[in-house]
Design a protein that fits this description.
By secondary structure, the protein is an alpha/beta fold.
Length: 309
């Protein structure tokens, strides 16, 4: 039975790329229904077996074991459900805008944490640098480079940084994510001319981006690799991350493990906290620490009964 890669998943069907051809496959009920707290058993990026039919469609067979990392989030309206965005990934590309819409450091940090939690390499891209004085953006990029992340500035309209982004995407399976209006689809069309992706300007009334991409689509790249284009986001609820694990997603805090007065320090209000001392001394960026606090406080305490099981 031929195998292919799922490139798009809708409510009742999906597209699977088999030997360079997109094959539409109906999704049986067992692929659409999930139990509370469990992820859908199939997602964009999955490798699947497909039985080709005379009418050109396919019938899904087995899902092959996953490899690499994944991007997932907490499903809307559920307390524990997981919404898997894409799987079998190498890297997460967080796209922000220097302006129009304004740079959102809080969302950048939340998305980076999701990449760390999903075992993905992270690349930060600040787009639309042609709209602003580059100095503040350079400072932000240098901050994240100092933490060990790759980071670059781009302008999809002027072409700045496009070749470098093409190199970063080459021969990898990447997922692009970020707020609506930051130019993810425009960047992809600059990286690979010929892609037909819908774009819209930022709303003048709200200053926020309009949702243009309506579903996750995995696009093959002519220069090698794949990239998943995702709908723009305004909020991103983290899934399957406990408070005790959060500090491992902040490299600047990891250097100070074992330096706090208390072994179980949450780095929020305990006396003798090495992290808070570093923030006060300017050794840890104050905005990054604020992101940590906001994420920490948004994570529910684990259920003791669940932990015993």
């Amino acid at each position: 039975m031929p195998t292919g890669t799922m490139t798009r998943r809708d409510t009742a069907s999906c597209l699977v790329l088999v030997d360079g051809q997109a094959v539409r496959c109906p999704l049986p009920g067992r692929w659409r229904q999930t139990r509370r707290g469990s992820a859908c058993p199939i997602a964009v990026g999955d490798r699947v077996e497909v039985a080709l039919q005379p009418n050109g469609e396919g019938v899904l067979g087995n899902v092959l074991p996953r490899h690499g990392g994944k991007l997932s989030r907490k499903a809307a309206g559920e307390s524990e459900g997981e919404q898997v965005v894409a799987v079998n990934l190498d890297q997460l590309v967080v796209v922000a805008a220097a302006a129009d819409p304004p740079l959102n450091r809080r969302l950048i940090d939340r998305l980076i944490v999701s990449g760390e939690n999903g075992e993905l390499d992270v690349l930060l891209v600040i787009n639309k640098i042609d709209l602003v004085d580059p100095a503040p953006c350079d400072a932000v990029l240098d901050l994240y480079r100092g933490l060990g992340y790759r980071a670059l500035a781009t302008s999809a309209t002027a072409g700045a940084g496009v070749e470098r982004l093409r190199e970063e995407l080459s021969q990898k399976t990447s997922v692009l994510t970020g707020p609506s209006g930051v130019g993810k689809s425009t960047l992809l069309m600059a990286v690979q001319p010929g892609l037909e992706l819908r774009v819209q300007p930022v709303s003048e009334s709200t200053g926020k981006g309009r949702h243009t991409t309506s579903a996750v689509s995995l696009l093959p790249l002519d220069f090698g690799g794949y990239v998943a284009d995702t709908p723009g986001i305004r909020e991103f609820a983290l899934y399957d991350l406990e408070r005790d694990d959060l500090k491992h997603c902040f490299p600047e805090m990891a250097k100070l493990f074992g330096s706090c007065r208390f072994a179980d320090c949450s780095h929020r209000q305990e006396p003798g906290c090495a992290v808070r001392n570093a923030v006060e001394a300017g050794a840890i960026d104050a905005e990054r620490y604020e992101s940590y606090c906001l994420i920490h406080d948004s994570i529910s305490e684990p259920d003791p009964a669940r932990r015993r099981r």
